[in-house]
Structure formats: structure tokens, C-alpha cells
Amino acid sequence: MAAAPVWSVDPRTGKQREQVAVEATAEEVDQTVRAARDAAPALADRAVRAAFLRTAARLLEEARGHLVEAADAETALGPVRLTGELARTCYQLRSFADLVDEGAFLGVVIDHPDASATPPVPDLRRYKIPLGVVAVYAASNFPFAFSVPGGDTASALAAGCPVVVKAHPDHPGTSELVASVLRRAAAAHAVPEGVVGLVHGFDAGIDLVRHPLVAGAGFTGSVRGGRALFDAAAARPVPIPFHGELGSLNPVVVTEAAAAERGEEIGTGLAGSMTLGVGQFCVKPGLVLAPEGAGGDRLVKSLTDAVSDTEAGVLLDHRMRDNFVAGVRERAELPDVEAPVTPGAGGEHTVSAGFLTVPAARLADEGAHDLLLEECFGPVTVVARYASDAEITAVLARLPGNLTATVQLSAGEAAGESGRGAELLAELTPLAGRVLVDGWPTGVAVAPAQHHGGPYPATTSTSTSVGGTAVERWLRPVAYQGTPEALLPPELRDANPLGLPRRYDGRLEGGGPQG
């Protein structure tokens, strides 16, 4: 049987552009994984890893025009958005290079023998080592930042793990181009090109997560697809960690005092956040708890005006467009649901932004309105009007895990005058990995303190896919006991020849050779 072709498709027209590859067979997946495994020793030197990551960033920047043009043709996200996303991706690669140079992520801990302890402590030395080959499942909505050169790939390479990326079918041509750039960066440092593998096809994705040489996986996508791969990873003869980002509603609570103080401003801000990128951000606010009464009315009026001025846009593919149109129609038909601005089909290839309103009491109990508590991918949000703080609590109690949760407070509440701000933070913190006050969740900064994850189904683990600590997903700790100095890895020797930050007999040391 001939291998199935992989086509690049223009989402603006739905027409095939060009064939860019063929779907990988099981044998080809095996070859790609083995090539990645064979490239791993070349990543053992941290200096090589850091240089590789910086070269990758530079070469991506040099190819910016060609890459942005290719990505726009396949995603319709636009040159401005894609240029910014590529810049973010290059910054992320350099951030991980800096992290590799520093070395603190290795978590070096050295304890010398202490016979007086109870029980006695032997000589123990602990640090973290790479897992092995990492499978990366690219996201549809970020062809750079969460795809072939994205956070999963960058953090895995920083950890010393080669990667095999399962390309997303919405941007296969872009994936091929970017993979070739990363391989050129690898070759510039004598790292085998197999260190970044790329495969296409649904079956190839299944074969990849099941491959015995794959030691971990990162995924960004739907609940259905992510859960299937998560289950496959757990069902292997040797289960592996699966770090998946699956879906998120990203609730927002607007207090009555905040709505009274600045309802118009909040409505405008909400409109910008929920329509950004045609509503295709994983942290789009999908449920907003707003008060009944005059303040909430002003918020809804402002939101109506701003969303009404939003032009129709193109989603990443026509399947997503059809799902969006059907999803908002089904939600709009529920009892007591109204559509001040009707979302749906904007044209043959586009969608129009809108929002729905519903009494919060409808969401407090299990029933037909549960659909409103599920993510709808695209430019739509649900505004639930509450009559009391008790209704806020009842709705929040029914929400699954989320990437983000946001609260909009009045100036007095933010200053702690009433205690209401602290109460809401306490209610929102168990629901999400990132809690925002008086902001909007769209936009995930690449920073050491960032956390992009959350309770299930937001993610399948407690880790983050953005920020320096994302590297921890691809490492495992190992301790050496009673090991002669000559046999220890350089990272664990008393003299600290690599100048690593470490905890030495209970004291934190900043690095540098020890005398």
C-alpha cells in the first residue's frame, strides 16, 4: 500500500496547496526514534547544548521571512502575529541556553558521611540526568512556539534529550522547514541531525508514544486526543511520563464592586482577550461570572459594542470551523441562553465572534447547561450573570481544572479593604495553575516564574510547559552512595570542576570551583 500523502492546506480557501511529505510507516517511526537515540551522546556536553540552542535561535531569525510566509499560508494567523510568535520562540531557545549554562536545573546535592545522625548518613550525591528520547506532539494554534521549535522541544534539548516531533497536520510544510533549520543548527555543533526527528500521520503518533525507546512525551491539543495518547503512554509495558495540555475554560470572576467601578473597561478588555487570534488561544477566557444589576449591564454593553466591531476571521482549518459553528449553535439553543452578539459562521471560510449570556443559577446544578462549562475553541465566551456570592461559589465548585483563573476587583478590594479579594483568590487557586488579578489570561510570558499548566484536564501532570522549570519534565534524579571520587560524574565531585550551583552539606553554594 502506498504511503498516504501529507498535504499543506490553505485555511482561507480549504484548498490543497502542495504535498509536503507522506505519513510515516511504523518502520520509519522506528528508524527516526533510533536515530534520535543514537544522537543523544552528542548532547552530553552542556556547552554544546547551549551553543546548539543559540544557533537554532539565530538561524530561525535569519529564515524569518520564509518561515512566516509559509506559516501564514497554512494557518491564516497573519504575518504580524507569526513574526511575534517566532521572536518569542527564539527568545525561549536562548532562555533555555542560559539555563543550561547556569546548571542549577541539575539539582546537585552533596551530603558527606555523618555517623552522628540518626540513622547515620552515608556519602550521598544526587543530581538529575536526561530521560532519553522525548516525543513531542505539536499544537495547531502555535506553529512555532508550541510546535517543532517550541517549548517542549527546547526544554527537552536543554535537558539533554533528543526529540521526535509528530507534526501537526495544520502546518506540515512549516514543520518541515523548521525541522531543517534545527538540523542545520545541530550540524553546526557536530550533533547528528537525528537529534530532531519529524514524523507525520495519525498512526505515526500512536506508534511514537508506544515505541520502547521513547522515554517521555509532551502534548498540546484536545482533551480527546491527549487523553488517548496519555492512556497509551500508561498502558505500555514500561509506562512513560506524558505531559499533556488538553483543554481549559479559563474562568473569570468580576466582582460587583469592580463592575460598578469600571464595567465598561472590563467589557472592552474581555472582548480583546476572547477574540485575540480568532479565539484560538489556549488561555482564552471562556466563562465570565459577572453580576446582575447596573454595573454588570454596563460590562455587557461594552462587550457587545467591542465584539460587534470585530471582523470575521479564519480558523486554523475547516474542521475547527465546523466544530465551532455547531458548538455555539448547540449552546445558544439551551433554555435561558441569549446571544447579544451571535457567534457562528461569518462566511464560507470564516467565523464571526460573539458571546452568550445565561443566569449563573443555570450552571450551579448538573444538567443540560453543563455544555457551557466545556471549552468551545474559537471566538466565543459565556457570560454568566450571578445574583449573589453564593452563586459564584456554586458555579466555581463545578468547574474542572484550568490553565488560568482570573478575578477582576475594585480598587478597594485589591487593597484588601473588604477581604473579598482574598476570599476569591482562595476559591480560584485550587482551579488553575496561574491566577490573575485585574488582567487577562491571553499572553503567556516566557519567564523563570511562569507556570503554564493546571489541574486535569488542563494538563495531565503538575509541571509547566513554559518557563525554565519546563526542563524538569525530561529529567530524573539519581543518587550515588559511597562512590569513590574518581568514579563520580564531574557534576558530583567535591572540587566542583564545572562550577555548578549546588547544596553542599546543607549549604547553598552559587557555583564556581571549590577549594
Structural notes for this entry:
- This protein has helices at 26-39, 46-62, 64-75, 79-102, 151-159, 172-187, 202-210, 223-235, 256-275, 294-308, 318-332, 389-396, 411-414, 420-428, and strands at residues 5-10, 15-22, 108-111, 124-130, 133-137, 163-166, 196-199, 214-220, 242-245, 251-254, 287-291, 338-341, 344-345, 351-352, 354-359, 380-386, 402-408, 432-437, 475-481, 502-504, 507-509.
- It is globular.
- Helix 2 (46-62) packs antiparallel against helix 4 and helix 4 (79-102) runs parallel beside helix 5 (151-159).
- Strand 6 (163-166), helix 6 (172-187) and strand 7 (196-199) form a beta-alpha-beta unit.
- With 515 residues, it is α/β, with parallel strands linked by helices.
- The model has no long low-confidence stretch (mean pLDDT 96).
- A seven-stranded mixed β-sheet has the order 12-15-16-11-10-17-18, sandwiched between helices. A five-stranded mixed β-sheet has the order 19-4-3-20-21, with no helix packed on it. A five-stranded parallel β-sheet has the order 7-6-5-8-9, sandwiched between helices.
- The longest helix has 24 residues, at 79-102.
- The chain is built from 14 helices and 21 strands.
